[in-house]
């Protein structure tokens, strides 16, 4: 049953996997029990970094009281309780950037919801009495942080993307501290105080996987190149279309190992591969020669660790994982996201020679195939891109974020 506004959900699941405790310049010590309120929601890109940070706080200070505010109809309503955190909901939605009658009607309703959500947030804040309020993006952060600022509660926000969203642009002017995944976001903000570059927390299983073991588990010879390509969990039709001739070629000449995910919305592409001689190799998995096509990649840590070249979208979490593992990549930013932020995310790497980019409007089997061939044929270039990507990684992101949160308490 969906949570109702003000309904508290006691997390009964286990906590997220613990991340590797890396060397950090910070020393975190607290003498009293403190309360932390996280506001985030909408997408995994907002929620998972917040959960990683909250989990770390719980690791280093087990007596901390932590609560999340989100919406009842997005994935935070499942992910937060499953991670073992208390969760309250507010009824809020985003504005539509259109002048169509349908969009105008929705925006009027959004204003009504916003007024009510501000009252709800104020009530929750007074009841919980947090020492610090932390926003990790999404429109749910807006009313929560606005009310916290009015009540004089110390506040901070984290921006995952190189081009900040509207909510965080507005909040940056009011909150006490602003944290950034990449320094490039700074030029798009007018913060109250100097921002801190903290990076973005990376899943522990990603950090813990090594290349040699991953290749052995996937039966990839050490002297062969492996390409990993995916368009997110749902898949991306333009990428699937461009990949089709490339994968068919790789399957015929066996020149390179290749693992590709068509995504859960791309089942029709599995049929196309089956029609071209690919045979079942497990549930929703087809294989021919050195090419494996999957509906979904559920062992991303292993596949990415083994790969020489990664091809995919440019979401902040994916890029942080690519950097943490030091992978060469071809990035195809989604043009359908707010503020075209994936393009800016990708360019943060491209400008540092840490990745290559093909915009979706320029994406074809020929353009992508040519770039793949160029990179795989030049080991020196691959190693240079890998090194530059690794140099961008911030592996103690949780510790940096936690230090700033604790400094405000």
Helical coverage, percent range: 40-55%
The number of strands is: 15
From the alpha carbons, calculate the radius of gyration and give it in angstroms. 22 Å
How far is it from the N-terminal to the C-terminal residue, by CA? 35 Å
Number of helices: 15
Please give the largest β-sheet. Answer: 8 strands, mixed
Mean pLDDT, as a whole number? 88
Low-confidence stretches: 1-30
Q: Beta-strand percentage?
A: 5-15%
Anisotropy-based shape: elongated
Summing up helix and strand content along with how strands pair, one would put the structural category as alpha/beta
Detailed description of the structure:
Helices cover 42% and strands 15% of the residues. The protein is built from 15 helices and 15 strands. The model is unreliable at 1-30 (pLDDT under 50). α11 (316-325) links the parallel β13 (309-312) and β14 (328-331). The protein has 409 residues and is an alpha/beta fold. The relative contact order is 0.12. The radius of gyration is 22 Å and the shape is elongated. Strands 10-11-12-9-8-13-14-15 form an eight-stranded mixed sheet, sandwiched between helices.
